[in-house]
Amino acid sequence: MRLPIAGERLCVLSTEPLLAIGIGVYELHVGSELTIETPGGSVHHVVGDPTRTHDNLVGALDGLIESASINEQGGLRIALDSGAHLIVDPDRYYEAWTFSGPRSMIASMPGGELAVWQDES
After folding, report:
1. What is the distance between the alpha carbons of residues 107 and 117, in angstroms, rounded to a whole number?
2. Distance between CA atoms of 76 and 112, rounded to whole angstroms?
3. 28 backbone φψ class: left, alpha, beta (φ>0; ψ -120 to 50)
4. Calpha distance 20→23 (Å, rounded)
5. DSSP letter, residue 3
6. Rounded CA gap, 82 and 80, in Å?
7. Per-residue DSSP letters for 57-115?
8. Which of 2, 53, 68, 118 could make an S-S bridge to 78, C-beta 3.0–4.6 Å?
9. Contacts 24+ apart (CB under 8 A), 102-109
């Protein structure tokens, strides 16, 4: 499933207790582990882990979105024009991420099942 955010820029709103990212009229909340793949290698971030710093997270997420998609397992992948990729795999025990916008929300439930709410009125 493709998300309608290509051409938008990510804006980190908060890193505690959840990672909150603004994307145009949408918001992405990450409550699990995420991976930032860059041309220089991969960096793993555990949201809410007080022993880890998120200093380089904002810089790693800089760039315009080239594509964003959700796979059948409930994983999220966002490709940036900087060459970086934001990846959030489903979590076995927790809601890994939610993506919300005008009159809709998608959540990766524990185990990766997707919950989708849309107000079509």
Report:
1. 9
2. 10
3. beta
4. 10
5. -
6. 5
7. HHHHT-SBEEEEEE-TTS-EEEEETTS-EEEE---SSS--EEEEETTEEEEE-TTS-EE
8. 68
9. 102/25, 106/70, 108/70, 108/74, 108/75, 108/76, 109/74
Q: How many CA atoms lie within 13 A of 24 on its CB side?
A: 12
Contact 89, 45 (CB under 8 A): no
Token output for 36? 């930032």
The model's pTM: 0.89
Query: From CA 67, how far away is CA 83, in angstroms rounded?
Result: 11
Q: How far apart are the first and last CA of the chain?
A: 22
Task: Answer for the pair 53, 47: CB distance below 8 angstroms, yes or no.
Answer: no
**What does R_g of the chain's alpha carbons equal in angstroms?**
14
